[in-house]
Specification:
12 helices, 8 strands, 275 residues, TIM Barrel
Length: 275
């Protein structure tokens, strides 16, 4: 099966909603692959898998190793990898060096970075050098410390122009899509109507061209989920139930049963006993 490219994702705008989820491990990637258009190896893995307070402690080597497992375990999804905090802001040259390393080491399809107009030159530099870029505006998790928390954008029309210009700037720089995070519906709708590339919403209403969620959030594997998350199943409770049953069976010597135990052939047993 052909893997979706960044161009394939871009061409879906106006045709049908684009389905995206995060993936950080091979088992999750394998399970999701046939059901989504795009898998994002997000720096949210720091909070989800490592229990970090935020995404700022995530390193490039961590992203690379997790991306390798996702790429290897999938065959059709477009794989996008986040550039973590501190790996692209310093200069467009540094962004290119780190992006090209990620692309070469993981065989992913694209990278994602946060920022709008301030990242125009960087995104342009990358796309002109054959690196597909997904933008990310609105609520930017890597700015959590400077903004004092995770705050929804677009509640006041006074700030709309900045985010619209951010989106247009990313499009002009060559980005193939833009994540809109933590944004009011009217603003997300306005941005989506003004750009010719797909918008992927996370907490940005159904007006976007596509949607993404942190997979562990929608599976019920995280303790606290934002308002915009819908839990489709509570996997944590299923895991707890399975672990409780396993514990009980081990303590009662019901597991492993004969079905799960290796035995010697009877002829070999008799031969050994005759010695």
């Amino acid at each position: 099966m052909k893997r979706n490219s960044a161009k394939d994702i871009m061409n879906l705008k106006g045709k049908r909603p684009i389905v995206c989820l995060t993936a950080y491990t091979a088992p999750i990637a394998r399970a999701l692959d046939e059901h989504v258009d795009l898998l994002l190896v997000g720096d949210s893995l720091g909070m989800v898998l490592y229990d970090y307070e935020n995404t700022l402690s995530v390193t490039l080597p961590q992203m690379v190793e997790h991306a390798k497992s996702v790429v290897n375990a999938s065959s059709s999804s477009c794989i996008v990898v986040d550039l973590p905090f501190g790996t692209y802001e310093e200069s467009k040259e540094k962004a290119f060096s780190n992006s090209s390393d990620v692309m070469k080491e993981t065989n992913c399809n694209a990278i994602k970075l946060e920022g709008g107009q301030n990242m125009y030159q960087t995104v342009k530099f990358l796309t002109e050098r054959s690196i597909p870029v997904m933008g990310h505006i609105g609520l930017q998790p890597q700015r959590v410390l400077i903004e004092g928390g995770y705050k929804v954008k677009g509640k006041s029309k006074f700030e709309w122009n900045k985010f619209i210009e951010d989106a247009l700037s990313l499009e002009e720089a060559g980005a193939f899509s833009i994540v809109l995070e933590g944004m009011t519906e009217p603003l997300a709708a306005e941005i989506t109507s003004k750009v010719k590339i797909p918008t992927i919403g996370i907490g940005a209403s159904p007006k976007c061209d596509g949607q993404i969620l942190v997979t562990e959030d929608m599976l019920g594997l995280t303790n606290i989920a934002p308002k915009f998350v819908k839990k489709y199943i509570n996997i944590e409770e299923i895991i707890k139930k399975a672990a409780d049953q396993y514990s009980s069976e081990v303590k009662q010597r019901q597991f492993p049963s004969e079905k799960h135990t290796y035995q010697m052939k009877l002829s070999l047993v008799e031969k050994n006993e005759s010695k």
